[in-house]
Predict the 3D structure of the following.
Amino acid sequence: MSVSDVAAACGLSSSHFIKSFSTSFGQSPHQYLVNLRLASAEKPLVETDLPLSHIAYVSGFSSQSHITATMRRYKLATPGEIRRRKEISPHYYERRQQLSYALCRKHMTECSKHQP
């Protein structure tokens, strides 16, 4: 699903949707999705011996080279380096829970504005 599909479903233009999303979440929709994919790839990298190609596929990356290039760019480490470290930042799960809570509160606030 593309940004224009989501924007159309929300009744917005693509540019307005991207601007509103970026204002609300502090990052573009693309960056948000990249961060979600990277986060979903880190845990199995550290906790399992699954092949990188499988982890890339289930995390939404097109190939092993795609996940490697993206991790190198955004995490400053390759999947192999992350796997060898065998650790995720101690604040990873705490930060993820805080983000989920914040998104939930924001959604509830937005919904309450539209109710009579």
User: Anything to note?
Assistant: Residues 92-113 form the longest helix (22 residues). The radius of gyration is 17 Å. Helices lie at 3-10, 14-25, 29-47, 52-58, 64-75, 79-85, 92-113.
